[in-house]
Amino acid sequence: MPSDNPDRIGIMADSHGDANAIVMAVDFLKGNACHALYHLGDICDARRWETADDCVELVIHCGIRAVMGNNDHTLTADARGRKPAGIRRDTLSFLENLPLRLSVGSARLVHSRPFIKRLGLSAMIGGIGQREAGTFFRENPDGLLFRGHSHQPELISPGEADIRFSSLVAGQTIELAAVRPCIVTCGALTAGWAMIWEPDGDRLQCCRFS
């Protein structure tokens, strides 16, 4: 296995209670020399609460930093009202204390939309269309946003006349300097998608590990 590379970061999202998908993604990203790992929310699935303990235990054990997804929030709210809760107290506490946004340098990492101060918890739901992308680009003219939620890998960037929404394919490399500002949807772990980001090289690779 290659040694960790300080210029490589692994990004994943939307495991939806699939602990095996997390294991496979970690093995793949670590095997590709990623020194830090991030999960963009929906670690768990609100309809599969019995898988939450295993998924959260993996995230903690592997040192993955994470943001809260809408399923994580719904699961904890349901667990608080259920007797017995069905998930461990430490699992519940971990999910409830996840942030809505993380920053790595100038890049932002969220579950869905970046407008936390305006939208609060509802930033975790809804997609990013022309209006939302345009607002982000105006407010962040050199911005880079990583998001999950929509499950399919996609690059959103300004075009000459309109905003471009481009699907990404496995093995594709994006030179981020050429497309900034931009929004990257990372794709779901449940379908085998992950991203390798090289901040110093301003480069991103779309990967499929299964």
Would you summarize the structure shown here?
This protein has 210 residues and is α/β, with parallel strands linked by helices.
Textual characterization of the structure:
With 210 residues, this protein is of the alpha/beta class. It has a single domain, classed as Metallo-dependent phosphatases (Purple Acid Phosphatase, chain A, domain 2, 4-Layer Sandwich), CATH 3.60.21.10. It contains six helices and twelve strands. The strands form two sheets. The protein has a six-stranded mixed sheet with strand order 3-2-1-11-12-9, covered by helices on one side. The chain has a six-stranded mixed sheet with strand order 4-5-6-10-7-8. The longest helix has 13 residues.
List the helices and strands and how they pair.
Blueprint: E1 5-12, H1 19-31, E2 34-39, H2 52-61, E3 65-66, H3 70-81, H4 89-96, E4 101-104, E5 107-110, H5 116-119, H6 130-139, E6 144-147, E7 154-158, E8 163-167, E9 173-175, E10 182-185, E11 193-198, E12 203-208
Low-confidence stretches: 1-5
Averaging pLDDT over every residue, what do you get? Answer: 95
Amount of helix: 25-40%
Distance between the termini: 18 Å
Q: Shape from CA axes? A: globular
Question: What's the number of structural domains?
Answer: 1
CATH topology term:
Purple Acid Phosphatase, chain A, domain 2
How many strand units? 12
What is the CATH C level class, in words? Alpha Beta
For the largest beta-sheet, the strand count, sense and barrel status come to:
6 strands, mixed
CA radius of gyration:
17 Å
CATH architecture: 4-Layer Sandwich
Q: Strand portion, in percent?
A: 25-35%
Question: What would CATH call the homologous superfamily?
Answer: Metallo-dependent phosphatases
Q: What is the helix/strand order?
A: EHEHEHHEEHHEEEEEEE
